[in-house]
Design brief:
2 copies of one chain form a homodimer. Chain A has about 230 residues and is α+β, with helices and mostly antiparallel strands. Chain A contains 11 helices and 11 strands. In chain A, the strands form 3 sheets. The first copy, chain A, has a 4-stranded antiparallel β-sheet. The two termini of chain A are about 35 Å apart. The first copy, chain A, binds a DNA duplex (30 and 30 nucleotides) through helix 9.
Amino acid sequence: MRLSELNLIRNLPLFHEVTEPQFEYLTEAALLQRFPARVDLISEGVLPDFLHIVVDGSVELFSTHEGRETTIDILQPITTFILAAVIRDEVYLKSARSLTETRILMLPAERVREVFSRDAAFARAVVNELAMRYRSVVRALKNEKLRTSSERLAAWILKANDQQGGTGHVALTCDKRTLASQLGMTPENLSRNFSLLAKHGIRSNGREIVIENRAALVSYAHPTSLIDG
Amino acid sequence: MRLSELNLIRNLPLFHEVTEPQFEYLTEAALLQRFPARVDLISEGVLPDFLHIVVDGSVELFSTHEGRETTIDILQPITTFILAAVIRDEVYLKSARSLTETRILMLPAERVREVFSRDAAFARAVVNELAMRYRSVVRALKNEKLRTSSERLAAWILKANDQQGGTGHVALTCDKRTLASQLGMTPENLSRNFSLLAKHGIRSNGREIVIENRAALVSYAHPTSLIDG
DNA sequence: CGCAAAATTGAACCCAATCAATGTTCGTGG
DNA sequence: CCACGAACATTGATTGGGTTCAATTTTGCG
């Protein structure tokens, strides 16, 4: 691994307080791998070999059962995933795939558990990370269950607008079928929801979304920190 | 608090390895409170004052938004709840209410965070607890999103049967509206699902459920450790 | 320019919620 | 001990959000 990348990792909250020898022990056997979009990274039901960290790109956590599939969470850098399975040394409950091209840092699971037992600072950092991830899943769950699909889209537009500078012009960074999957609906439904939001302050054309009436959109989406973070 | 109760707490995985002085510091300001059924215990959006532990009875975690409500998880003893919010000192993302009469142990949040920083064994125990809770929510989410309501009922019957000794006779321990809420459906829908399961090996009458054809029920419910634990 | 993938639009269907009416339990007080 | 009322439970009819299937239309790209 390159030095610049090691420094990047070192500065993550998760590793920042770890003692130098423990950090070296963790990273000397680490892999930093690049994956194209739409590649399976892990599969539910398998015991974890590595702790994964999204360094670049975005990753979808999902589960399947009897031919059905559901998205659990979408991860943006820089986030760990399947930390809970690694710590408890139990099988993954979800699968993961890359949505875009990604770089994933992989730390051997066994070493993570060892350092976790030896280094109190690391243990505390793990708790914080885990607590954060926990809250993120709860938010995702609430978003799914307490909003209709069109409300999720409306809330997503508001959030994307904030992240892109709040100009009222939002550009899609992925294709619409991926967005539909992120928002927990079919592409057909996403299409219908875009036209529906015309009644609530949105004009959209291709991958350009314009917020023409922010107040109307807000009153339809009901954004809240208890869901949207 | 009674000595017997202190010992009970002491033997929880979460506290078992904590040093004696730290344990005393945690528990000397603790409250063990009894609540009747259907009482609000905490409300989302509020900063945590206490870490709560279900000692007795069962507790529902739920969220509301714009007049809607959804169940996130049902807790049985002995489990902590809102641990993530306490550790991060951030507002609750969910509310909690007692489903039955309950006893709740409440530890001052500030002291939990202090001991968490000072006592490595406690920090490690917290991680394990948190990881377990995380996995539990993921399972609940999968159960909701990957199964129809009648499949959830079928899977629940199989699990309840196992817990009650596997005799093929299951007795309801709560009223049906509570069961409906646990399974994420309306009481009307639960009623319909019970009659529907007649086609899949179930005969039920009042609060007596009989599994007449286990194979048929299994092939309908598709139980799996990746959801049912 | 032409083709394949993505996106849209329409129709039918499904699961589950809601509303409404009726039947059943169960605890309580006469 | 029985009668009664209130909560619980069942049943039917309707509605709604969303998916699926199918048919076009648009987009992007070689």
